[in-house]
């Protein structure tokens, strides 16, 4: 099947204020959480409603953000259709899901889709970026706190788990969660209850947890930065979101979708894409994935002087090309010498003149510094004569030519 699936997004079961935004300050988050409680959870105990009045009202997110929050999802490439099928299979269960993918591949969109296809679709979907809080704040953000729990806790405040009760909690950038908090999260997932900071009373919660990461969590586990037991708890279902370069069949359907969205926003008439521009879109490696494509199309519409996007209207970054080529062709360095080889390949990519001399000077200079600027030791370290070392250090202006 090669048709484009256009899925209506679920009707907003929450006001936009119920969703955590990556760029918010803790104060804004606290304010929005207060609003969430006042608008979304009318049956919850009166604590939040009486003690935390709504401090501000947020306009619709669509009018605030420059990026359009997709109201439809485009799935056209066979890889995306396979992912869609997998989402359909796993969504109805209550299993925790780990969504893995590079930045901008649509991990949050996938998480929302899992929620929308689950029995919890009428409950809240709460998205929290674990990297957005300091270590001291993250506990009260996730689990809430009682009045007086810490300096500045002037009133009781429910956390994200309570806000997501009956629905889904999406923990974005889970790899950024401090180790101390990982233990507590594990306990909550096991016990299905939370204890607010400063309280002894446990509150039962009914939340499905979806987590996302753009790093290889297994590597973080191996390096001791992420708890293995928590990894297995979260990774009951594993959804890998492919990069845009690995699903080229989505590029043009997505481009057309973004053209429609942005031209409507900008009040333009119908806009087409020239065949050369299509080719340029298909040939790019898209290191920023769908978000990059969205930005490229938005910009192209702003600068386009006709009713058809041309090659020249598409401004793509070039830094991803070599990175993508390297990622595809080179294994990750496992020894320092392999790392050096990788670094050399980067330099060869740029192909500036005089390269050998620059590399040689760098080797001498680094060895010289490493040996606390002792020439005899540095020469011994490199296995060369002191005279050769001296000559190179003079050339690199590290020492003076005069004795
Ligand atoms: N299948 C899709 N159809 C339409 N738009 C999409 C699709 N997937 C992603 N997008 C859009 O691309 C942008 C990036 O998606 P999203 O925020 O879900 O990515 P992400 O993987 O969570 O990114 P990050 O790693 O930076 O948090 C959003 O504007 C989203 O609406
Ligand atoms: Mg995200």
From TrEMBL:
GO terms for molecular function: ATP binding; DNA binding. The keyword Cell membrane does not apply. Keywords: ATP-binding, DNA-binding, Nucleotide-binding, Transcription, Transcription regulation. SUPFAM superfamilies: Homeodomain-like, P-loop containing nucleoside triphosphate hydrolases. PANTHER family: TRANSCRIPTIONAL REGULATORY PROTEIN, TRANSCRIPTIONAL REGULATORY PROTEIN FLGR. Residues 73-302 form the Sigma-54 factor interaction domain. It comes from the Bacteria. It comes from Paraburkholderia madseniana. This is AAA domain-containing protein. GO terms for biological process: regulation of DNA-templated transcription. InterPro entries: AAA+_ATPase (IPR003593), AAA_lid_NorR (IPR058031), Homeodomain-like_sf (IPR009057), HTH_Fis (IPR002197), P-loop_NTPase (IPR027417), Sigma_54_int (IPR002078), Sigma_54_int_dom_ATP-bd_1 (IPR025662), Sigma_54_int_dom_ATP-bd_2 (IPR025943).
